[in-house]
Amino acid sequence: MKLLILLLFSFVQFNAQIKLNTKQEVDILFQGKEFSLDKIFDGTDPYMFKIVNNTNNTYIIDPYGFKNDNFVMTCDENIVTADKAILKGFYKRFDDKDCFNDLIILKPKEEKYAILSIINLKGWYNLDKEKKYILRLNSTHNNYTVVLLGCQSYIRELVEKKGYKVLEDSIIAKIPLVP
Question: Hey, where are the domains in the chain?
Answer without folding.
Answer: 14-178
